[in-house]
Design goal:
This protein has 400 residues and is an alpha/beta fold. The chain has 2 domains: 144 residues, Alpha-Beta Complex (Aspartate Aminotransferase, domain 1); 239 residues, Type I PLP-dependent aspartate aminotransferase-like (Major domain) (Aspartate Aminotransferase, domain 2, 3-Layer(aba) Sandwich), CATH 3.40.640.10. Helices cover 39% and strands 17% of the residues. The chain has 12 helices and 14 strands. The chain has an 8-stranded mixed beta sheet with strand order 2-9-8-7-6-3-4-5, sandwiched between helices. Strand 3, helix 5 and strand 4 form a beta-alpha-beta unit. Helix 4 runs parallel beside helix 5 and helix 10 runs parallel beside helix 12. 46% of the residues are buried. Bound molecules: pyridoxal-5'-phosphate.
Length: 400
């Protein structure tokens, strides 16, 4: 150490956990022993048998060859912002106040929370939820309040529970639709219910719609911003999942609502947007074709594969004694319930060590106390999924 003393990290990092990646640390240790691993834990289509549509790669390379390699405008290149606006209006958004292109939806989420929350402020997240939101709220020394999604009602939001969790410190509420980790595509009734509550308590609404294009059984998605032109809503979206380019890191936020209501908050977000200079530049040239080109056969191919995998997952997990699953309607996740005499972290860790099957404990996403779940990613091919579900079944038979 010489004259140096240890660098102490900030206390705010102590609370940060990220179950989806944390389980990988244990998995890598087990993998070193030579065990065959079956990874059902990461929502990245490209590590399985899904490939980026070629026209998006071509557009990005073309942009690089045309020297579009400097900083982009902070809110995004004009053609991308225009394409996002056009697509939103085609979907029926009642108003579009502003748009900002970011390094994945993740950065838009970070910016939107940072511009909103002071230390001690509260924000409502669904339980279960995608854990990034809670991580950022912790980083801001603000407080997460969880409201429950109702497993007995297709994992739709429990509106009474939302009401009961609101205090004078609550500044906003998140919905993830379709949901990660449950795969639920919310009903119009739920969405209107959330809007009514938000209006009553003057809450900003975040609507994370990153899985909007991944719906099975001809399901129709309702964007929250199509239901109300006045309500302050930030819609998050991006190319990662719909176009199989999570490594492009391209996402965005769409600000909607009455001008007088969202104007000041939007300016605060724009300050943060400008301070970080810009999102990835050449990849932004993929946005317009991704959103507006009519000819995109990859959607049908992807949904066909995912529907088969969703069906296998639904059938096999429900056949296992002690496991039950509400049918996912979209995305590529299944949040299965465990009715066994074990907590979910112990279950997932032991399953991993003994069988090599990697799934994420439900506690990493939030769940009703006393219940236990695990999340499966059904992106892997049928052979891997069937093998993994057989392993889970044998493991449960052996131990419980
Ligand atoms: C619900 C949800 N929102 C946002 C993200 C982050 O997406 P991006 O790759 O655009 O940062 C994910 C990624 O898994 C997600 O599941």
């Amino acid at each position: 150490m010489g004259d140096w003393r240890e660098i102490k990290p900030a206390k705010r990092t102590e609370k940060i956990k990220y179950a989806i990646r944390d389980i990988v640390v244990l998995a890598k240790e087990v993998e070193k022993t030579g065990k065959e691993m079956l990874y059902l834990n990461i929502g990245d289509p490209n590590i399985y048998d899904f490939e980026t549509p070629k026209f998006l790669i071509d557009r990005t390379i073309e942009a690089m060859n045309n020297n579009r390699n400097g900083y982009a405008p902070s809110s995004g290149i004009q053609e991308a912002v225009d394409a996002i606006r056009t697509e939103s209006i085609l979907k029926g958004f009642k108003s579009v106040h502003d748009i900002f292109v970011t390094t994945g939806a993740s950065e838009a989420i970070d910016i939107a929370l940072t511009a909103l929350l002071d230390p001690g402020d509260q924000f409502l997240l669904p339980a279960p939820t995608y854990p990034l939101y809670n991580t950022i709220i912790n980083k801001l020394n603000a407080e997460t309040k969880y409201y429950y999604l109702d497993e007995n009602n297709n994992w739709e939001p429990d509106l009474d529970d939302i009401e009961s969790k609101i205090t004078e410190k609550t500044k906003g509420i998140l919905i993830i639709n379709p949901n990660n980790p449950t795969g639920t595509n919310y009903s119009e009734k739920s969405l209107k219910g959330v809007l009514d509550i938000a209006k009553k308590h003057n809450l900003l609404i975040f609507s994370d719609e990153i899985y909007e294009k991944l719906l099975f059984d001809n399901g129709k998605h309702i964007s929250l911003a199509t239901l109300d032109g006045e309500a302050p809503i930030i819609t998050f979206n991006g190319l990662s999942k719909s176009h199989m380019v999570p490594g492009f890191r391209i996402g965005w936020g769409i600000v909607t609502g009455a001008k007088e209501v969202v104007c000041g908050y939007n300016e605060a977000m724009q300050k943060l947007v400008r301070a970080r200079l810009s999102a990835n530049h050449p990849e932004q040239y993929a946005i317009k074709p991704a959103l507006l080109d009519q000819n995109q056969p990859h959607f049908a191919e992807m949904l066909e594969k995912l529907t088969v995998r969703r069906d296998i997952t639904f059938k096999r997990l429900n056949e296992i004694k002690g496991v039950s699953l509400v049918k996912p309607q979209g995305a590529f996740y299944a949040f299965a319930k465990l009715d066994l005499d074990v907590d979910d972290t112990t279950f997932c860790n032991n399953l991993l060590k003994e069988t090599g099957v990697v799934v994420v404990p439900g506690s990493g996403f939030g769940q009703v106390p006393g219940t236990n779940h695990f999340r499966v990613v059904f992106l892997p091919n049928e052979e891997i999924l069937l093998k993994a579900y057989d392993q889970i079944e044998s493991f449960i038979k052996k131990h419980y």
